[in-house]
Design brief:
Blueprint: H1 8-20, H2 25-31, H3 39-51, E1 55-60, E2 63-68, H4 72-87, H5 92-101, H6 107-121
Antiparallel strand pairs: 1-2
Length: about 120
């Protein structure tokens, strides 16, 4: 199945569904920051996510309990590949250099990255 790109609102709701594992619209709304969007807005976005193949539901009478069909890891991989291809010529080095230049990586994170690199070298 082909993964489609999510809008910011869709991704926000998916982050909540990934965290909850399953939930009704009211459960998703309980996790949203203030000011809360209208219930109908959240419900509509979730139905769009269903149409895109990201979520499904179990019917409980007239209510629907939604759950993710696509894992956070699968979407993370899709989004990272898109970012790498679209902005960094598929180069981890270019992406890392960008974050270093923009001072988005602190010394602790850089140290963790170095440990990961050493682990990779020792395989």
């Amino acid at each position: 199945m082909e993964i489609k790109e999510l809008t910011r609102a869709e991704e926000q709701l998916m982050q909540i569904l990934w965290q909850l594992k399953k939930g009704f619209v009211k459960d998703v709304m309980a996790e949203l920051p203030e000011p809360l969007p209208a219930y109908n807005t959240v419900s509509t976005i979730i139905r769009i996510l269903e149409a895109k193949g990201f979520v499904s539901y179990m019917a409980h009478g007239k209510s629907h309990e939604y759950f993710p069909l696509i894992s956070k890891e699968a979407y993370q991989s899709f989004a990272t590949d898109k970012l790498m291809h679209g902005y960094f010529d598929n180069s981890v080095q270019h992406m890392f250099s960008y974050f270093v230049k923009k001072e988005k990586i602190d010394l602790k994170e850089a140290d963790e990255i170095m440990k990961l690199i050493e682990k990779l070298k020792n395989k």
